[in-house]
Design a protein that fits this description.
Elements: H1 8-11, H2 23-43, H3 45-50, H4 57-76, H5 80-88, E1 108-113, E2 116-122, E3 125-130, E4 133-156, E5 159-176, E6 179-190, E7 195-202, H6 203-207, E8 216-220
Parallel strand pairs: 3-8
Antiparallel strand pairs: 1-4, 2-4, 3-4, 4-5, 5-6, 5-7
Helix pairs in contact: 2-4
């Protein structure tokens, strides 16, 4: 499974091949951007000086577009294989495959899993700046859930290396400042044969990860 091609941005269709940004999403994000700028002008003295003059509607619309572009970039960095591996790493049973000499690194293990689901939640924050001055933030919430009826996980050298044939369903929601702007549901799909995770994902570091990312920034002049 190519991480660059299987990411959260593509799942929600926020890429050219996925259909692009829906009009209603652009409208909600533009309104949230405008609200963030106006609040910053009221609450932050430095921003109030820079933003005391009304911003042209076209500039606010452009800022909303920049926010969506930055959000898409953030979501494209969330690989679905990585999210799956991170979810599986929380199962203590997988820790045993990190122990030597019981589980030598040259041996491949195929571990069957039956009905289960993996959920992931992320809260990207886009920071706004106008003329170099902080101008508020736009917050998003992303939820993704994948339910498996049956699947096998391939483990080698303390890493999740692949998944093998099974059936799965997926659904996700995207919110901007608490307002749902996207929902995506995929009906039951049969995974075709073996799907590789490339170099794989280390089991133990994943189980101790989940370090929050810093906020992305949108700069306008």
């Amino acid at each position: 499974m190519d991480e660059d091609r299987h990411n959260v941005a593509l799942f929600f269709g926020l890429t050219p091949e996925g259909g692009g940004v829906p009009e209603n999403m652009a409208e909600v994000v533009a309104k949230a951007t405008k609200a963030a700028v106006l609040n910053a002008a009221k609450e932050v003295s430095a921003a109030k000086t820079a933003l005391s003059r009304p911003l042209p509607v076209t500039q606010l619309a452009a800022s909303g577009t920049q926010v969506i572009a930055l959000l898409g970039k953030e979501l494209s960095q969330l690989s679905i294989p990585g999210l799956l591996a991170n979810g599986w790493a929380k199962y203590d049973a997988f820790r045993q495959y990190c122990k030597e000499p019981e589980h030598p690194p040259t041996t491949t293990y195929v571990v069957p899993l039956f009905k289960h689901s993996i959920s992931s939640k992320h809260r990207p924050v886009i920071e706004l700046r106008f003329d170099g001055v902080p101008a508020g933030k736009v917050s998003f919430e992303v939820e993704l859930s994948i339910a498996f009826e049956e699947v096998s996980v391939v483990i080698r050298n303390k890493r999740f290396m692949a998944v093998q044939t099974g059936a799965a369903q997926a659904k996700g929601t995207l919110k901007c400042e608490g307002t749902q702007i996207l929902e995506r549901k995929l009906a039951k799909i049969d995974l075709p044969g073996k799907i590789s995770f490339g170099d794989g994902f280390l089991i133990e570091p994943l189980s101790e990860s989940n370090v929050p990312k810093r906020a992305a920034r949108s700069e306008s002049k």
